[in-house]
Amino acid sequence: MRRGRPAREVRLNDEQRERLRAIVRSQKAEKRMVLRAEIILRCDEGIDGRKIAAELGVNVNTVQKWRKRFHDYAMEGMNDARRTGKPPRITSDDRLKIVDTATRPPEPVTRWSIRDLTAELNKQGLKIGRTAVHDILNELDLKPYQLSMWLHSNDPDFEKKQADIIGLYMKPPENALVISVDEKTQMQALSHDYRKPMIQGSPEKIDSHYHRHGVLSLFAALFVHRGDILGKVKERHRHQEFIEFLDMINDEVPWNVDIHLICDNLSVHRHEQVQKWLSAHPKFHMHFTPTHASWLNQVELWFNILQRKVMDRGEFPDKENLSDKIMRFIGTYNETGKPFSWTYTGKVLTV
Asked: The Tc1-like transposase DDE domain covers which part of the protein (predicted)?
């Protein structure tokens, strides 16, 4: 007959049970948190502590510990208890000094490394090691050794233009098509002498030496709310070729449907001859993205797909081969293409 204090009863409500199951399912949860969640879930099922310990490969005292912690403190008891000991050696003032130093550009070098930043802090009288500096910066999500590029738009009509384009994406006009148009230029037909296929333990390899066979430009039109692409490969990308592409779009669209074209500010799109063509085709309405804001043009998303799937690892022995592969990709893409899920609604962006 077993003796001793009876185990504390654990009874979860629906919210607690779902939160614990989410921890167990998560691929990012810490291993210790997953173990604690599994213990509590089994306790909730009424499983004996010894059996839980055997199933999870832990000591029965571990099961009793977390059963008691959850019984006394609920979900808060899942976390480690606050430990006693001497106060932290790095004070709040020290942390401010670390942040202040890390956010000021060093001289004469252009960026801080963890080693250089630690040395500078030591010169300022703060005795601290590289590991502690790294941990504090990581906790604050500060990365002085990294640099991100950002192209700022100084267009005075930025808000008006972006609202116009986003409005077309979110609520298109009736009896009209919204089409994002742009050119992908400088597409090089490159070939390499040697390639080695992927094998176990080694990725595909490509010879760094390559041969150039010329460049092409792709005129592309994304039908925003249908998801398909209309494209034409050209040797050049002057206003003459752009007008030819506009004719191609015009031939593809019913005569009684208005066309709202979204373009960037490339001079080709504003050429005098293009304006004359538009005057002769009043169903075409041009909407220009703000300066340095071509990311508002959805066809740029498709260009990224084209770059990754066709261009980055492609072998093109001549320009004809490059053109053929691009057009075949467009045909394949259109078989399953769907509209992009546009989520940017015009809120202020932060750098």
From this structure: 180-322
